[in-house]
Amino acid sequence: MPSTIRNPILPGFNPDPSIVRVGDDYYIGTSTFEWFPGVQIHHSRDLVHWQLLTRPLTRASQLNMLGDPDSCGIWAPCLSHADDQFWLIYTDVKRYGRTTVGGASGASLRDFHNFLVTAPAVDGPWSDPVYLNSSGFDPSLFHDDDGRKYLVNMLWDHRPGQNRFAGIVLQEYSAAERRLVGQRRLIFGGTALGFTEAPHLYKRNGFYYLLVAEGGTGWNHAVTMARSRSLTGPYELHPDIYILSSRLRPDAELQRAGHADFVETPAGDTYLVYLCGRPLRNRGRCTLGRETAIARMRWDSDGWLRTADGDGLPRLSVPAPALPPQPFPATATREDFNTAQLPLDFQWLRSPYPDELFSLTARPGHLRLYGRETIGSLFKQSLVARRQQTHCFSAETVLEFEPEHFQQAAGLVCYYNSTKFHYLHVSHDEHLGKHLRVMSALPDSPQADAFTPPVVVRARQPLHLRVEVDHERLLFAYRHADEPEWRWLPQQFDASILSDEATTPGLPNFTGAFVGVACQDLAGTAAPADFDYFEYREREYLPDVRA
């Protein structure tokens, strides 16, 4: 039986965890932002081993993110179970607006819409959504022990001079009427740390406990707790105020700790799941995005929740509960695209109409992408990718693609968002013919994009493409199908730009690095590109992978 849990439990881009136990099963829902399908749900039976199980928001009637800006879309899902069904609350963010918090002279306009879907089982079928409100984000549904239900969410105040994060509001939800009823009430204004968001309500021993995130989702992040004898308050702060944070410990391995939810085992052990980041040691950037970690907690005699060791710091390893181990089979490192469905580890961007973007049946055994809009488009972008989940990895694919002109391109991409990527792509030039080059979008450089010199490649032959990432170092290689040796591009690329921290000021950056394949046809003729397989292999650091 494992004695410890290794953090993070959900590596790679898996932020804003919401956890629920149903019998002996544990489920965590995490944000997916602009990646489709929406919401990741992971499953465990021992809190040690976790497996990606499903994504519930799969159709246009539930989620349509066409046009959603980068790092918008699905924020902070809340997963719960009551009345013999699962309840999932989520936000679809349509406009991010300014990042100002308090005292700003102008407006800070945002658009976010909150919805509810339900299902008899965690793997569905999930219902069409019920619209709830648009007053703020991070909605959470609380099921009181008298059967009544309440929605809590942070309140956004766009007015000049106001605190944008205006506190936590509560309003009753009528399951019979499928709508919010009564008046909303402000129940918690937050602390001086600000950025009060991510509310979750619980009831224990006659107290209502409120858990929120504060300090912003960067280095100042923290988990704040308050409680009240009354649902509507007033709420008194925890004696320590912040029950988990790494904001005062820059030496901690897990940074940005916050946005939490807790669960109890059948034996009464309490565990807190929270988001965190693992910065590159030599660059201080979190290319893996915001991940999910876990902490063992204790309820003290004063009725307050604290970490088991009492210091309120995130740890790389924590004591495991006394539960039988339930490991899952290892995820395959190579996908050969031999089924009609996209492998679960892969997602695409924004569109609820995947048939417009790709097919796994047009050429069996291949993933066919149809050339659509520019890479970074907010609408019809043919890009299929999976999360980067470790700092060192290898990925490769084989591409069959015959572009006819410079407006057609396809290849292998390391992608964060429309302003941050490295794209090894094949295209066509009227003088050179078929060629290969890298396009980089650079968020923190005076030059917004950069291209390597073109390299001529053979026409009408499959082309193998490869990327190697070691922390902040990124290298590309290629070879023709009959060549045993890889040809390395001489340039070394900066993988650290694929992070929240590398940005033009004011832009939202809340996802993480992905690696995958893409195809464009700016002439509108949907030229296809076929990918025979995709391999993603995690590994140890290599000083020079080309050796």
UniProtKB/TrEMBL annotation:
CDD domains: GH43_SXA-like
Lineage: superkingdom: Bacteria
Beta-xylosidase C-terminal Concanavalin A-like domain ranges (all copies): 334-537
A single GO molecular function term of this UniProt record: alpha-L-arabinofuranosidase activity
Enzyme Commission code: 3.2.1.55
Any GO BP annotation: carbohydrate metabolic process
Transmembrane feature ranges: none
Family under the similarity heading: Belongs to the glycosyl hydrolase 43 family.
UniProt-listed PANTHER family: BETA-XYLOSIDASE, BETA-XYLOSIDASE-RELATED
Record's protein name: Alpha-N-arabinofuranosidase
